[in-house]
Write the structure tokens for this entry.
Amino acid sequence: MAARSLPITVSTHVARDFLQNAAYFNTLPKVLWEYISNSLDNGKDQQSVNVVVDIYGSTVRISDDGMGMSRQDLQNFFRMHGENRQRQRGKRVRGRFGTGKCAAFGIANCLRIDTIQRGRRNVVELRRGEIESAKDGRAFPVNDLTVDEYTNQTDGTLVEISEFNIKRLDVESATHYIQHHLSRYKQRAHVVINGQECKFNEPPARAVYRVNPPNEIAQHIGEVTLLIKVSPIPLDLDNNGIDILSHGIWHQTTLAGLDNKEMTQYLFGEVDVPALEDKEWPVPAFDNTRNNTLNVQNPVVAVLLGWIAKELETVRRKLVEEERLRRQTEEAKRLIDEATRIAEILNEDFLRLQIDFEFARQIAARKGSTKVASSDGSTEPLPGGGEEPTKWQQTGAPYGNGIKGATPSSGDTPRPNGADLNAGSELGSPKTSVDRSRKPKQGLFSIEYRAESVDMHRSRYERDSRTIVINLDHPQISGAFNASGKNTESRQFREISYEVALVEYAIAIQYERIEQDDQIQAVDALYEVRETINRVAKRFASIM
């Protein structure tokens, strides 16, 4: 008689499962948000949660004044793929896959949790080495440091992450990420990172469209309302698109396939679809990869995205037509002409500065052994000693000892050999040749007048296109424009336009210097802003 075979069962290698799920949390912002959102989801009834994040040295500490965890709660917390305890109690929370506890090990080697609930304190610690040593695939222990210690401290939890595997803890990008996620968190929350309160101001909207789905769509996604908002300025990637929520929990921001189409960069909004959370399907609506996207194979998601795409396209086409008609008006044409005049003056200055920038790099290269990248991709000898002919002549005040004002220029007085480079025939030498392998940033400056609402700055700089935008709705500019009878050639309007463009240009030049690998200090940048304003203002004055 044949031996009876053991039944085949599904099992898991716990340590490998734990670390594979940790790999989804591969940045500091993702890790922080996982533990911050855990704190926000575990507040006491009818009370907002205060979360304090301290990032110093090689340690991150995330503390809250929520309900804390008992020893049994800790046991549930460390159960892989366990159901969220708040969901079990009927509370709508973000967590659903039971994998967030491993987030720290996406970028670090040690996780410690210090938690207090109802006068009992528990402290546990888990280290990567102990996880990796669990090679048999069975459950591995979490180290108890304190067990049910009596305390009079208030409830709450402290998560401490240390021994990082990443080179730098970027606090600025992490704060930005948390602020954007909090903007979509529809419950009360108060989060402070390194003493800075996380606040997010939603972009202003110059138009809002409220759309309800037709019956054939509503039978799939429910009776929901889609809010489509139109920003007065182009939006960054984090804000551009429709936030898809379910019971106030954010799951994705999307343009539903309309990315990069004309005027879509002005669109944002939201829609809350409870059906995503309320229903179960063979093909789920969500996944556990933390990539902030819904599963397009899910039937409700597919219908929802198709409907959003249709409604966004309707608004987009309206905006395109409005922009086309606006540009055809006589007022718009006059503003374009005025913007062109301003741009011509700025670009005269910029072309001269490009020569100076290049020569400054060449001077830096001459002082050391490192070759310095230039701006046009070729190689040529430089002036300043030698017997080889060059196309250049050194002019201007020489570089001094770093003290501004030591060698000032004055009017039309000829300037001695120094930092400026003009066309000429001064001799140079091959040793001063420069490696010109970098691709230059193309394009000169352009100016645009746009109506961007009274709440926005009077001007801004779009670095990718080197465009300076002047906000016609800003009170200072609109006041001058209206007072002149909307005459673009009036002295009042031209003076304010030139001044605004000049200040923005002076600041933009410093961005250009940094991008071209100039080694500049903050004090030098501020000095150059003042010099640029003074120099170009004289040019403006000569044509007024």
Q: What stands out?
A: The first strand starts at residue 49 and ends at 56. The CA atoms of residues 184 and 250 lie 6 Å apart. The chain has four domains: 14-197, 207-321, 329-345+441-543, 380-433. The first helix runs from residue 14 to 22.
